[in-house]
């Protein structure tokens, strides 16, 4: 199930904009593909992220994968609970497994991302 209130990237991150603050996480598809997540390296609070640039790393029993920022801005907060419980991403990728928030520099960047229907089609085209 793909939540309809989010925007999605081709690298399987999701973003929810609330005012000027964007919350970022990885999709259910991404956490399922990665398997049991064992470690997350999140960006530092205050870090300047650029859209489509590396924001951190997520590691699982299967692989390590770069986290790609879906939006440009300054990191406002991180989900520090993931440091001791990265498996929260597997259990609740759209809720308690969120990764970080960004004070969005340009909210119009989200227009270039996929809505839920387009992301579901993208997953099907990937052979999902």
In brief, what are we looking at here?
The chain is α+β, with helices and mostly antiparallel strands and 128 residues long.
Overview of the structural elements:
- Strands 1-2-3-9-8-5 form a 6-stranded antiparallel sheet. Strands 4-6-7 form a 3-stranded antiparallel sheet, with no helix packed on it.
- The chain is globular.
- 16% of the residues lie in helices and 34% in strands.
- It has one domain: RNA polymerase II/Efflux pump adaptor protein, barrel-sandwich hybrid domain (OB fold (Dihydrolipoamide Acetyltransferase, E2P)).
- It has 128 residues and is α+β, with helices and mostly antiparallel strands.
- The protein contains 3 helices and 9 strands, in the order βββαβββββαβα.
- A hairpin with a 4-residue loop joins strand 1 and strand 2 (13-18).
- The chain has helices spanning 28-34, 88-91, 116-125, and strands spanning 7-8, 13-18, 21-26, 37-41, 48-49, 54-60, 64-68, 73-78, 100-104.
- The mean pLDDT is 95.
């Amino acid at each position: 199930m793909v939540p309809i209130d989010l925007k999605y990237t081709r690298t399987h991150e999701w973003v929810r904009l609330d005012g000027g603050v964007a919350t970022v996480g990885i999709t259910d598809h991404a956490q399922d593909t990665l398997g049991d997540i064992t470690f997350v390296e999140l960006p530092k609070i205050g870090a300047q992220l650029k859209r489509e640039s590396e924001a951190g790393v997520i590691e699982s029993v299967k692989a390590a994968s770069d986290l790609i920022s879906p939006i440009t801005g300054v990191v406002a907060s991180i989900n520090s609970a993931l440091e001791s419980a990265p498996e929260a991403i597997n259990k609740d990728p759209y809720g308690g497994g969120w990764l970080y928030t960004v004070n969005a520099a340009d909210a119009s960047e989200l227009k270039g991302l996929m809505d839920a229907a387009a992301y579901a089609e993208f997953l099907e085209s990937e052979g999902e």
